[in-house]
Amino acid sequence: FKYSVNGSLHTTTKTVKNNGGTIKMFDDYDFTPYFQLAEQVQKPAPLHERLALCEQARPVLAGFVSACLQEDGELPPSIPFRDYAPIWYMRTGQWEAAASYINFCISCKAYFPGDGQAELQYLNCYRRTAQIALEYISQNPGCLQSQIHKLLSGSTDKECLKQFTKFSELIKKVPYNKTNRLYVAQQRPYGF
């Protein structure tokens, strides 16, 4: 991993001390704001706070990507804002915000070639699956999570349905035997 804090492999021209650690910089680009926000967004916190950090990071992310591409012509394999924000928006049913973040990442070249379009396709698949699942759950409150996969297998994407029932904040899960009873969440998650 070429771009990190505290002595990981760096190809850089300048070294700066910050909070006891060493941050490497390319020429005049200071990665400090990127790494500070990236560290914050990965800490446990309410999802709406983490999403606010992702939004705050947009200009920092664009600068980071530009500097990485200028220096090495490549990106690190993991970019927290790019990797997490769309998923978190999907989990809360904020479809337009998810699409906006993906499109922003595409425009600033934060995705590897083809990955941005694949992410948009996944968003559309997840959204369709969520709509079908929510309709079914609203018509069958208390349906079992273990059964919904079988019941909706022909009309939804299997992996999207699995992710939706496991992580979505649009549904409420009540433990029942070795599965969960599913209900549509009465309130939008985190005030969204």
Summarize the structure.
This protein is of the alpha+beta class. The protein has helices spanning 32-41, 47-56, 58-71, 80-91, 95-107, 115-139, 145-151, 158-167, and strands at residues 14-18, 21-25, 143-144, 171-176, 179-184. The protein has eight helices and five strands.
Keywords:
192 residues, alpha+beta, three-stranded antiparallel sheet, two-stranded antiparallel sheet, 8 helices, 5 strands, disordered N terminus
Task: Describe this entry's structure for a reader.
- The protein is of the alpha+beta class.
- It is 53% helix and 12% strand.
- It has eight helices and five strands; from the N terminus they run ββααααααβααββ.
- The protein has helices spanning 32-41, 47-56, 58-71, 80-91, 95-107, 115-139, 145-151, 158-167, and strands spanning 14-18, 21-25, 143-144, 171-176, 179-184.
- The strands form two sheets. The chain has a three-stranded antiparallel β-sheet with strand order 3-5-4.
- A hairpin with a 2-residue loop joins strand 1 (14-18) and strand 2 (21-25).
- The two termini are 35 Å apart.
- The model is unreliable at 1-20 and 22-26 (pLDDT under 50).
Largest sheet: 3 strands, antiparallel
The assigned structural class equals alpha+beta
**Shape summary:** elongated
Tell me the Rg in angstroms. 20 Å
N/C terminus separation = 35 Å
- SS element count, helices: 8
Q: Kindly state the mean pLDDT as a whole number? A: 85
Give, in spatial order, the strands making up the sheet with the most strands. Answer: 3-5-4
Strand content: 5-15%
From N to C, what is the helix and strand string? EEHHHHHHEHHEE
- Helix content estimate: 40-55%
The unreliable regions are 1-20, 22-26
Number of E-state strands: 5
